[in-house]
Structure formats: C-alpha cells, structure tokens
Amino acid sequence: MLTRVKSAVANFMGGIMAGGSNGDHFGGSDLPLKFPYMRPEFLGLSQDEIECSADHIARPILILKETKRLPWATGYAEVINAGKSTLNEDQACCEVMVVKKKPGGSSTPSKTPTAKRRSSLPNGEGLGLRENSDSEGLQFHYWALFDGHAGSGAAVVASKLLQHHIVEQLQDVLDILRNSALLPPTCLGEEPNNTPGSHRALTRAASLRGAAGAPGSPGTPPTRFFTEKKVQHESLVIGAIENAFKEMDSQIEREKAVHSISGGCTALVVVFLLGKLYVGNAGDSRAIIIRNGEIIPMSTEFTPESERQRLQFLGFMQPHLLGNEFTHLEFPRRVQRKEVGKRMLYRDFTMTGWAYKTIEDDDLKFPLIYGEGKKARVMATIGVTRGLGDHDLKVHDSNIYIKPFLSCCPEVRVYHLTQYEHGHDDVLVLGTDGLWDVLSNEEVAEAVTTFLANCDPDDQHRYTMAAQDLVMRARGVLRDRGWRISNDRLGSGDDISVYIIPLFYGNQQP
Description:
This protein is 22% helix and 21% strand. The protein is of the alpha+beta class. Strand 13 (343-346) and strand 14 (355-358) form a beta hairpin. Among the domains are: 10-178 and 231-283 and 409-425, no CATH class; 306-383, no CATH class. It has helices at residues 2-10, 47-53, 153-171, 174-178, 204-209, 233-255, 308-317, 433-436, 441-453, 462-475; strands spanning 62-63, 75-79, 90-101, 107-111, 119-120, 126-127, 138-149, 264-273, 276-282, 286-291, 294-297, 326-327, 343-346, 355-358, 366-367, 369-370, 377-378, 388-389, 411-415, 427-431, 477-479, 482-484, 496-502. It starts with a helix and ends in an 8-residue tail after the last strand. 41% of the residues are buried. The strands form seven sheets. Strands 3, 4, 7, 8, 9, 18 and 19 form a seven-stranded antiparallel sheet that branches. Strands 1-2-23-20-10-11 form a six-stranded antiparallel sheet. This is PPM-type phosphatase domain-containing protein. GO terms for molecular function: [pyruvate dehydrogenase (acetyl-transferring)]-phosphatase activity. Residues 73-503 form the PPM-type phosphatase domain.
C-alpha cells in the first residue's frame, strides 16, 4: 500500500493513473473501436486538419468555419492540451432533434435538415435524414460537451449517442408534453383529474386510518385516500434527461465487451424545449448565463470535495467497497502510526464541521478522499465523481473498483428562457474545466461582455469570435516558463472547449 500511495501522490497532477497518455487501447485491447477518434463533426475538419490540430506545442485554436453549421449562430472554439494526453479528450455535439411518433404509438428520433451528416442510434445503426418534420413531432435544440479521461473513447461514444437516448426518453412522454393544459397523469391509462378540490381532503387522523373521511362521518369512502403530488411537465423533461444519462452509461458498460471504449468522461448537456433551457451536468464542466451583466450559475461541479459526504456515506454503508485499504473518515492530513491513541481532528459523513477523535489502527488506512482543490482524488485515483464510463477503473495496482463511487446521474437546472427578453449580448457560456481552472465566472463574464460590446450586433460571427477570444485568454501565450495568461498567471494546460450560445435567438422560436 505504501508504494501505491507514493505512486498516487506523484500522479496527483497527472489525472487518472490507469492507462497511458492516450488510453484508447488500454490494456492492449484488440477490440475494434465503437467510433473512430475525431473532432466535432460541425467543425468540418479534414483528417489532415485534425492531425495538425493535435500540436501540443503550437496549440492552435479551432473555430467554426461556417456559423450556419450550428443553430442560433452559436459560437464554438477549442484547443488541445499542452501534452497531458496524446489526443484532445474533449468532445462536443450540437444538433436540432425531433421526437416523432411512429404509427401505432411508437416514435423514432430524427434530425432536422440542418444536420447534414450521418447519425447513430443507440444501437449503432445509421438513421436516414427526413426532409420534412412531422407536424406532430416535438423539436428540441441540443448542445453538449464531454471531457474525457484515461482515453477519448467514452467521450466520443457519448457525443454520438447521448442525444438519441434523450429522444427515446422523451418519446415516452411526448403526448403529455404536447398537452400543457393538463398535468401529467399519475398513472398512465387513467383519466387525468386536474380540477382543484376534486378530492375531499382528509384529516390527519382519518388519513392514518385510511378512513372514509372526517372522524364520525357516515359518508362513503372516497376513491383515493391520500392527496396526490402535482408533477409539472418540466419534471418529466428533467426525468428524461436523467434516465438518458443512466442509459448511456449502461450502454457503454455493455458495449465494452465488444468494442474498445477507453476511460470515462464528464458530460454537460443543454436542451432547449418548449421555451425552457434544461442544463444537465455530471462532472466538473460548468455553465453560466450572462444576462444584462448579471451572472446566473447553471451548474455545479461534482468533485471529491463537493461530494465528500455522499462518498463517505457509501463507504460507511458498504465498507467492502473500500477493500480494507481505505477509511471513509477524513483527516486534515495522513495519520501516522505514532499518533495512534492521540486525539486528532476528523470528519464523518454526518458532519460539515470538524471534531476530535481518538486515533485507532483503522485510521491509518489511506483516506477515501485525499487532497484539496484540483488535487483532491477519490481513492488516490480520479478527480471527478460524476460522469459516464470508467467501469473498469481500479485503484492503482489493486483489484478495488472505483465505479461504485462514481455517479452517472446529472444535476439538471431549468431556465425559463421565454419569460425574459434577451439582448444580443445575453449568452449561455459552456466550458470544460480547462477554462474554469484559470478563469473565474466574473472574468469570463467580463471578457465575453467586453468583446461582444465591440462587435456589430448583426454579425453572426461575433459569438464564435468571442469563444475564440475566451479560449485564447485561458490558454495564454507560450513563454519561457510555460503558458501564461494575464498578470503572468499560469495558463491552462488542459484541453479547453467553449460554447457561447446567444439567448436572443431563443426568444424567436415558435
């Protein structure tokens, strides 16, 4: 264990310890790739251009060649890392999707004609493009960023397929979402009853007895004994996104048996549907809205520190997952044998503060969560706690799987876009952690606002240029002491991918 700990500490800044710098054929797998490595399709790059973009010294910033490739004049820019991995492990996807209903009640997903390229269903089969949208279909806009680790495989697969899992989940509630006048029925197949006060309210005593009504009432028992929760339509969309993430994660696990799908990835997804933006995040990418100079956070980073209590609780409830080598308790530093019997500060999953406990032999085990900030790791291995993939990830030189501690479930936040009038400079900014590691929300908002203020409001290239400027600010300039940004701070050496989505166009949607 001591050797393992030394290796883990030495690799804090290197990210995932399992696999090599690439990891796309980790373990020497001879299995075929699920999808070949590439850059986002909407960039329209040739193979030669993709190879030139992988220059870890020059680090060229890639931008859209044609703004019409993305809806809403969305801006996009990306840059590869400074040698952290052979390939750019970020991936991106942006499409306009339509949920269509099949004859007989089933539905099938399709893209609108704006997406002139091959699609892949969750089963990997090609899907022909339709030229005419179904009048009964439901259209939504989709943007996504995936930040891979220990290889680009999971990020590539998720960028191809996650949107189709969302479509499949929305198919189940298509008719309900299109009928906004009625609340979703509690049980499908029964008539919805949305009349206020249609059911007699029961007293607490009567409810506990499952009684007919108020105490002593001779009345006939009502058909329902308890009041029902009123579930709103947006909760169905949230549930569809959450289930789509779980299905995507399960598909990666299944297909690893027949395809080489390396590593794992974080996922940041935006869905614009029926006037609302749904932002789903699993990982440490980030989304913010900039509206009239105000910053509205639209995601939370999921890291070993932010999810400490969830991870510790799991370790406490299922100690076998710790492999008899880790402790779920947290200490300010590693406990030494000479401190057994002494009292030291600690935290358990029930605590946000700290207290003292008498050190025991079990406390000498390596902490489940160790390190601070970007150096914090789960089991000395991985620095993110939510995402897709990582099913084979183990603690270095052990047989302890880390996946049980990693959740694929996103947090979904909702922004009622059509309730506000947005100007041309009001935007949603999405970025992988390579951006946010070196720039704060305030710095990003100031940079974007200042740049857009100096552009012609009618110039649709302005958002791509703003994304390029943002990536350049985070990457910095290569000097004698590495990549440097403003005030001679260290620039980002990670992959950086950025969307700038103007909200003004959302107000123009029917």
